[in-house]
Amino acid sequence: QVQLVESGGALVQPGGSLRLSCVASASIFSGATMAWYRQAPGKQREVVADVSPFYQTNLADSVKGRFTISRDNGKNSVYLQMNSLKPEDTAVYYCNRKYSPRVWGQGTQVTVSS
């Protein structure tokens, strides 16, 4: 079964931290560069960070120094550690392949607000 399940989103105050998790089916995860995307209301979905099968990472300029992406190849999982959160980080966060994304999961809502 092809699926992606994201979790870990919440309401958090500015300056707070969250850790998002994503479990993918092996057919999606194995050998793929995985990415975290986000979509804010009224905006297009954008790539926040990606990690290759060999653990090389890239981060969008807007989150550099605050977010960290990692993966566990043994668990078909990818994680996003988010620190120093800002209101502009508010969005639904999704994980998927960076290249040739597959069917999207339900995402996880992150709301940064005081």
Folded structure, characterized:
The chain is mostly beta strands and 114 residues long. It contains 1 helix and 10 strands. The strands form 2 sheets. The protein has a 6-stranded mixed β-sheet, with no helix packed on it. A 4-stranded antiparallel β-sheet has the order 1-3-8-7. Strand 7 and strand 8 form a beta hairpin. The longest helix is centred in the N-terminal third of the chain and has 4 residues, at 26-29. It is globular, with a radius of gyration of 13 Å. The protein starts with a strand and ends with a strand. The model has no long low-confidence stretch (mean pLDDT 96).
What are the key terms here?
mainly beta; 114 residues; six-stranded mixed sheet
Brief summary of the model shown:
The protein is mainly beta. The chain has one helix at 26-29, and strands at 4-7, 11-12, 18-24, 34-39, 46-51, 57-59, 67-72, 77-82, 91-97, 108-112. The strands form 2 sheets. Strands 2-10-9-4-5-6 form a 6-stranded mixed sheet, with no helix packed on it.
The helix tally amounts to: 1
Shape: globular
Q: What would you call the structural class?
A: mainly beta
N-end to C-end Cα span: 40 Å
What letter string, H or E per element, gives the SSE order?
Answer: EEEHEEEEEEE
Oligomer: single chain
- Biggest sheet architecture: 6 strands, mixed
DSSP, total strands: 10
Helix content: under 10%
Weakly predicted, low-confidence segments = none
Task: Write down the Rg.
Answer: 13 Å
Strand percent estimate: over 45%
Strand adjacency order, main sheet: 2-10-9-4-5-6
Q: Mean of residue pLDDT?
A: 96
